[in-house]
Specification:
By secondary structure, this protein is mostly helical. The chain is about 70% helix and about 0% strand. The chain has 14 helices and no strands. The longest helix has about 35 residues.
């Protein structure tokens, strides 16, 4: 490379996100985790679209507990259902619960925490005391109660949608049955996100660029939306990445207790619950979903740690 090209490259510089990507690529565990998540996501969301994957809910009592074969790559379960199909379709639900619930919690927590941190004073004190009170309540019990409350409205919505589109009854029931779980976990899991957002806003609102925006006469909503929130997306993205495995684990816990995804749909939590009943006689039914579930959680956590290091402003000085 010529000196002119090197000088041009030096003058061009890098943005925060390009620098973060460069640092992330140097983190081998984070990149391996990213590849693993892409593979698992492809298997769960794309492979089931092909015809060779059977219906995960089709029972065949003459074909129960079959060993892996050409027709059933991972064998069948206690009801003769293809284990690979249930693993892939269950992965769709578990991953969607984690992603959608995290999105809901980020929207609520970011809005709540940003307003509290920017307002300050008594408003901030009152809003954060509410968060402290909610922190003292048992999260899992609240999720169960809130989910049951929303499910009544979800049933009415299901009937109205089926009456409008009767040809899509199966898809509608499958999606609407998940809505209470999505909303309950996300709507009650935003408390820590609110604290993270508040701390970031308190730190940023003292910076010079915010004072410059105030001196220009910009309104408070514009300052918050255009100047403060965009500059705090790094920590928010990092925490959101670390939140996904927690919500996936919450869904698995609820499904394991029989309070999550409704039958006949499957999720990794349901597969773990069913496999635990046959762990001594047919350990394959527990081991396969356990490995998949654990691998996904490890990958999400390693990727979150890698993003935290990559987006850390102090790392840019190293």
């Amino acid at each position: 490379m010529s000196k002119n090209a090197q000088n041009n490259a030096a003058l061009k510089g890098h943005s925060l996100w390009s620098d973060a990507w460069i640092r992330l690529k140097k983190n081998h565990m984070a990149m391996i985790s990213l590849v693993v998540l892409l593979i698992i996501g492809t298997l769960c969301f794309i492979i089931p679209a092909f015809s060779f994957i059977p219906d995960p809910n089709t029972q065949n009592l003459n074909n129960t507990f079959q060993d892996p074969s050409g027709n059933h790559l991972l064998g069948t379960d206690q009801s003769g259902r293809d284990l690979l199909a249930r693993l892939l379709y269950g992965g769709q639900i578990s991953l969607l619960v984690g992603l959608v619930a995290t999105t809901v919690s980020v929207i609520i927590g970011l809005s709540y925490g940003a307003i509290a941190g920017y307002a300050g004073g008594k408003t901030d004190s009152i809003m954060m005391r509410i968060v402290d009170i909610l922190y003292g309540l048992p999260f899992l019990v609240l999720v169960i109660l809130f989910s049951l409350l929303i499910s009544e409205h979800a049933k009415d919505l299901t009937e109205s949608l089926i009456n409008r589109w009767p040809d899509h009854e199966v898809v509608i029931k499958k999606l609407i049955n998940l809505v209470p779980l999505f909303v309950a976990i996300g709507a009650l899991g935003w408390l820590t996100m609110a604290r993270v957002a508040r701390a970031q806003v308190i730190s940023l609102k003292k910076q010079e660029f915010v004072e410059a925006a105030v001196s220009l006469g910009l309104s408070h909503p514009k300052i918050l939306l255009r100047h403060i929130i965009p500059n705090m997306l790094g920590p928010i993205i990092v925490y959101a990445t670390l939140t996904v495995p927690g919500f996936v684990l919450t869904e698995a816990t609820l499904s394991f207790l029989g309070l999550g995804v409704e039958s006949p749909n499957s999720s990794w939590g349901i597969l773990l619950s069913e496999g635990a009943n046959y762990m001594e006689t047919y350990p394959r039914l527990l081991i396969i979903p356990s490995i998949t579930f654990s691998l996904t959680l490890f990958a999400l956590n390693f990727l979150g740690d890698g993003l935290r290091d990559a987006l850390d402003p102090k790392a840019a000085k190293d």
